[in-house]
Every structure is written in structure tokens, then in C-alpha cells.
Amino acid sequence: MLQVRSNIFSSCSFGFRACAESLASENASRLAAMQRADKNINELLEDLNRTFHSLHQSGIDEELFDVISGFESLSV
């Protein structure tokens, strides 16, 4: 009887352990995927910010050149 209980407990313990390891592995995979996605989003955001600032600066430069050329044409 003691041997039967021991075998049942051992089988249940093995099953529980297998399920726990499976869940831990799945969660680790999900965490790694979320971290990669977060890194990709941050890189994309940096690229978009760089592009925005470059375009914004180009617009400012163009307006400044227009003002300077207009001033020079009035000075002549």
C-alpha cells in the first residue's frame, strides 16, 4: 500500500513538474518576443523622430533663405 501511494505521488509530482516547466518555457518565449517587439518599436520611433526633425529643419532653413533673399532683393 505504501509503495502504491509513493508511485501515485511520484507520478503526480512528475506531471505537475512537466506542466510547470512547460508554462515557464512558454512565458519565457513570450517575454523574449515582447522584448524584441519593444526594441523594434523603439528603433522605429527613433528613425521617425530623426526623419521628422530633419524635415522640420529643412522647412525652417527654406523659410530663412526666403527671408534672406527677400531682404537682399530689397537692399539692392
Structure explained in plain terms:
This protein is mostly helical and 76 residues long. The protein has one helix spanning 2-75. The protein is rod-shaped, with a radius of gyration of 33 Å. It starts with a helix and ends with a helix. The model has no long low-confidence stretch (mean pLDDT 87).
Concise overview:
This protein has 76 residues and is mainly alpha-helical.
Highlighted features:
rod-shaped; 76 residues
The overall pLDDT, averaged over residues, is 87
- Computed structural class: mainly alpha
From the spread of the alpha carbons, the general shape counts as rod-shaped
Radius of gyration: 33 Å
- Helical stretch count? 1
Strands, total number = 0
User: What profile does the largest beta sheet have?
Assistant: none
Strand proportion, as a percent range, falls in: under 5%
State the distance separating the first and last CA atoms.
Answer: 112 Å
**Which H/E pattern describes the elements?**
H
> What is the percent of helical residues?
over 70%
List the helices and strands and how they pair.
Elements: H1 2-75
